[in-house]
Design brief:
D-amino Acid Aminotransferase, Chain A, domain 2, globular, 292 residues, nine-stranded mixed beta sheet, 2 domains, 8 helices, binds 4'-deoxy-4'-aminopyridoxal-5'-phosphate, 27% strand, D-amino Acid Aminotransferase, Chain A, domain 1, alpha+beta, single chain
């Protein structure tokens, strides 16, 4: 059975949910989005995702057609209508229908849709074995061009990086910024364990302020693990004790090699596994209830 989609104020069958070919989200990638997960009948970190959506929209001067609590309700209604307990929710706001020029002034009404479905980024065995990552040639967008902190519909930078990772036969691609420092993978933030501390690049290195990244930092604080945000080179990853990626869809994925260099023991590390366990406990117990 098909999904029910929230589309500009109404819940409609997925076959009927269609955007115009003149929508600037399609023509120019002019819009913003969020990827959110629901676990066990609740929506995890919903407020945090919505705050980031409004921040992304503000940065590109796009008015989200619903207020915070209306949008929150619309998301809950969409998950409920699809009777999902575990879900992956995509919220998209585009500039709306305009003409063939790129001027956003011509787009009078933003398009808003919400898809509540499922996602599986990596097979289960990857979480047990770990990922092999390669560095790709495509650099992460310059922060003063298309700032990676904005979760916009413009994902070509990441898609080009993913193509290069695919061409190299790797499951993920590491992107460096224009200065050659580590930024993030194509759809996940990166952490290493170095001398017992967690280290991750700062947002200024050209990364998305990941909600999972923040959750991992909170978990680390809770278990007395030191966290440093600092610029890193590939060398810092080659020589780390452990490495893992974080993202809403991917959750926490161990990385066991970068560009052919084995990281640590070549197996998912102890600290990575501890954080994975804590993360899964949080996702099972926290979040906005959908069915109460
Ligand atoms: N970086 C990029 C480029 C992303 O697209 C994402 C989300 N898929 C992340 C990092 C992780 O962010 P979050 O933890 O909020 O999902």
């Amino acid at each position: 059975m098909g999904l029910l989609i929230y589309f500009n104020g109404k819940l409609i069958p997925e076959e009927e949910a269609k955007v115009s070919i003149f929508d600037h989200g399609l023509l120019y990638g002019d819009g913003v989005f969020e990827g959110i997960r629901g676990y066990n009948g609740r929506i995890f970190k919903l407020d945090e995702h919505l705050l980031r959506l409004y921040a992304s929209a503000k940065a590109i001067m796009l008015d989200v057609p619903l207020g915070f609590s209306e949008l929150k309700d619309a998301i809950i209604q969409t998950v409920r209508a699809n009777k999902l307990r575990d879900s992956y929710i995509r919220v998209v706001v585009t500039r709306g229908v305009g003409d063939l020029g790129l001027d956003p002034k011509k787009c009078k009404v933003p398009t808003l849709f919400i898809i509540a479905g499922k996602i599986e980024l990596y097979p289960a065995e990857i979480y047990e074995k770990g990922l092999d990552v390669v560095t790709v040639a495509t650099r992460r967008n310059f922060t003063e061009a298309v700032n990676p902190a904005i979760k916009s519909l413009n994902y070509l930078n990441n898609i080009m990086a993913k193509i290069e990772a695919n061409n190299a036969g790797a499951s993920e691609g590491l992107m460096l910024n224009y200065e050659g420092y580590v930024s993030e993978c194509t759809g996940e933030n990166i952490f290493v364990v170095s001398r017992g501390s967690l280290v991750t690049p700062p947002i200024s290195a050209g990364v998305l302020g990941g909600i999972t990244r923040n959750t991992v930092i909170e978990i680390a604080d809770g278990i007395g693990l030191d966290v440093k945000e600092k610029d890193m080179t590939r060398y810092d990853i080659f020589t780390a004790e452990e490495c893992f990626l974080t993202g809403t869809a991917a959750e926490i994925v161990p990385v066991i090699s970068l560009d052919g260099r084995v990281i640590g023991t070549g197996k998912p590390g102890e600290i990575t596994n501890r954080i994975r366990k804590e993360y899964s406990l949080l996702t099972m117990s926290e979040g906005v209830p959908v069915y109460e």
